[in-house]
Amino acid sequence: MPSEAPATVAQSALDTKPVFNPTPLNFDTHNFPALRNDLYLRTARGEQTERAPVWCMRQAGRYLPEFRAIRVENEFFRVCRTPELATEVTVQPIRRYAELLDAAIIFSDILVIPQAMGLEVEMVPGKGPQLPQPLRTPADMARLTDQLPG
Predict the structure, then answer these.
(1) What does the alpha-carbon distance between residue 67 and residue 58 come to, in Å, rounded to a whole number?
(2) Could you tell me which residues are beta bridge partners of residue 56?
(3) Backbone angles phi, psi at 143, to 5 degrees
(4) How far apart are CA 34 and CA 31, in angstroms?
(5) Pairing of strands 55-56, 103-104
(6) Other beta carbons within 10 Å of 51
């Protein structure tokens, strides 16, 4: 009989779906303003909605004068790595087209990943992103480092 208990516990664990709590422990839900447009979130949850949501990816904001003004004073990757700047350029299209957009994709770039692994990425005017020392062989993987604090 004692051998059945672990099997029951293990089977019970397999039958239980993982619990996802989207609210971090240090998040103050009491002082969070009410959502004014949750169309995108309702659609993502699979709920029936009155229309398809419209959202803006960060690339779509590059033409905005507000974005260009920030870029005059800030290098591209600085905008990606600075929460206040990334937030600002994320919401710029929402502000400008308030009644037309339901959401925005957070401003960032896929090239922050190689930077986080210690690779140099340069934005060359007229050419775009360049990796001066790309990974070309398996041995090059030894150059990767953890750039995160801690």
Answers:
(1) 10
(2) 104
(3) -75, -15
(4) 9
(5) parallel
(6) 8
Burial class (CB in 10 A: 0-12, 13-18, 19+), 58: buried
**Six token digits for residue 4:** 């059945």
Query: Which of 92-112 are b and which e, b meaning 16 or more Cβ less than 10 Å from the residue's Cβ?
Result: bbbeeeeeebbbbeebbbebe
Q: What is the pTM of this model?
A: 0.65
| Integer angstrom CA distances of residue 95 from 4, 50, 122 | 61, 22, 30
Which stretches of the chain score pLDDT less than 70?
1-29, 58-61, 148-150
CA distance 139 to 122: 22
In sequence order, what are the residues at sequence separation of 6 or more whose Cβ sits closer than 8 angstroms to the Cβ of residue 14? none
Is residue 141 a contact partner of residue 111, using CB atoms and an 8 Å limit? no
The pLDDT, as a whole number, for residue 82 is 93
Across 23-135, where does the E strand assignment appear? Answer: 55-56, 103-104, 122-124, 128-130
DSSP state of 30: T
